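Hi W., the NAP complex you wanted:
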Amino acid sequence: MDEAMKYATIKNTDIKVTRIGFGCANFGGIGSDPRLVGKGDSEDDAHKILDKAYNFGINCFDTAATYGNGKSEEILGRWIKRNKLARKDVHISSKVSKKSRGLFWSSKGLSKGYILKQIEVSLKRLQLEYLDIFYIHAPDPATPIVEILGALNECVKKGLTKAIGISNVTLEYLKESIQISKNKSWAEYTVVQNSYNYLKRNDENDVIPYCKNYGILYVGYGPLAGGILTGKYQAGRAYPENTRLNLRESLYRTYLTRENMQKIDELKEIAGKRNMKLPVLMYEWLYKNESIDSFLVAPRTPEQFQSLRDALEDNILSR
Ligand SMILES: NC(=O)c1ccc[n+]([C@@H]2O[C@H](COP(=O)([O-])OP(=O)(O)OC[C@H]3O[C@@H](n4cnc5c(N)ncnc54)[C@H](OP(=O)(O)O)[C@@H]3O)[C@@H](O)[C@H]2O)c1
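Structure:
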């Protein structure tokens, strides 16, 4: 499997990430929602899924200070330690968010002091000396861009992260940030992590072409739109218990349009004709999609992981 998995390189580094990364937002909680801490995968289940992902050839793992209120970072850190993984063999990204509920609160969003403290907190939880990518979880309009970039530049200079990235970013904010870093001769964003899937493709018009032009790694998150692109939700029917939509509907409501539900029906038909399940088709679509460099998958159970295996082994990598 490993030889067949494709890689993407992060500019100005020796980091080669697999085109499929593993998202750890289901560990210890469900994403960044403080009300759902304790509802995510247990440590045991998380470690089993991580073993599967690693043995499958995936080499990059994405977490955030807010996932499970820090539990995701801790669970990932203990997994690396338990398996005695060489640091060079895994690429770890984490994120600082003004919403972080860790040790530090910030009245000013992403102030320099807050960012510099928060990376130390993340590294401690992960039991690591450095991150491969340190992301700003989302732009913070309350903090001047130059202050955020100054803090990130210091993180790079101190060796706390190899690369810096930004998530949930618009083209305008990204362009301004890159320009400021260039003017100051500071470390620049070399990774962007935005939402991208078959139903959410607006970045194709602006952010993705810009990233291509500047050699910025584009990482797509939410490949199955939080599970909607598995076809398991049906219009007018209650969401199954303990599913993403059952727990966090507000985040996904905008996907649930009549037009999207119709598209999902069409996709199901295409998948059916090819004798495959919808998530398999969606993973295949992303893997073949050259406009994105890497995407983050997050199957929550071994059964869900099978879709990824089916997609890659049977439909893509074997060709
Ligand atoms: N930067 C950001 O703001 C941001 C935001 C979101 C995500 N991310 C990153 O991207 C990663 C992936 O995002 P995501 O969790 O939204 O990915 P996703 O693949 O769109 O959704 C994952 C969910 O889909 C469902 N699922 C997966 N495979 C399935 C299958 N075969 N059959 C049925 N259901 C299946 C599961 O839902 P159930 O839980 O309902 O079973 C699972 O929790 C995250 O872990 C995180 O690292 C970043």
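The pocket of NAP is lined by residues 23-26, 62, 137, 167-168, 193, 221-227, 230, 232, 243-244, 279, 296-300, 304, 307 (CB under 6 Å).

W.
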